[in-house]
What we know:
CATH class: Alpha Beta
CATH architecture: 3-Layer(aba) Sandwich
Distance between the termini: 27 Å
Largest sheet: 8 strands, mixed
Number of strands: 11
Number of helices: 10
Structural class: alpha/beta
Strand content: 25-35%
CATH topology: Rossmann fold
Shape: globular
Helix content: 25-40%
Oligomer: single chain
Strand order of the largest sheet: 4-7-6-5-8-9-11-10
Amino acid sequence: MLIDVVDLLLCPQCRARDVESGVDFGDTDRTLLCDRGHSFDVARQGYVGLSTGDGGKFTGDSAEMIAARDAFLGKGHFDSIAAAVSHAVPSDSEVVLDVGVGTGHYLAAVLDARPDARGIGVDVSKFAARRAARSHARLGAVVADIWSGLPVRTASASAVTCVFSPRNAGEFSRVLGTDGVLVVVTPTARHQHELRGPLGLIGVEENKTRRLGESLSGLFEPVAESPLEYSMTLSRKDIETLIGMGPSARHGDPEARSAALAQLPDGIEVTASVTVSTYRRRANAAS
Length: 287
């Protein structure tokens, strides 16, 4: 819940002016106020929007995409990935920030394994934050754009997780405390490769993990890199929801894809293939 993490949050309006101003609940639990008078409404679903309002037109995943993701993840197909993320986060982490939290599935797994930890889930999609807000009792959900700055206190996080989501190395470094770790999950070229040709899905860039390391090298040093690959037996309905929750949902001809999907057997082996990369914040990295 937001009340569990409100002391870790910042006013985005003040952050845009390089001032760290905390927020707290006002006279009711429906408003957050900063020290300088900026106010932010808490949605009845329990999340809060902490954006500057200049993040552009991109609003993240739609309600339909989040519903599809919730359905697919709810069947356990990516539970091995969630377990790998939880394993990579240090067991004594007190505050875990998940950027691109989605439904809250991965952060909830991390918190389940750490009874005393608190979690902040940030996503640009209000539909994602709405779902994440009810995914775990110790998770506070926030709508924010990472490219406009994370509304999270400097050096307040023990770990940052980023699963299939964009990365802002500078902001990750700022919010992580001393010895803080960053855990990133990226798909490999083999991820769901059985579906790309028949259904025209968007492919994965070659050497994605290597380029990730290069993009982070100025602020982070690599600690571990763990490959994870396994086979999933997916029904046509599973594949439909898998497509609906990802970037391919916004591309291609839906009717042609539905026709191609109908030609697949109702039970196909599909590869899940990712790399779980762990980085530590460099001691000389500027906050």
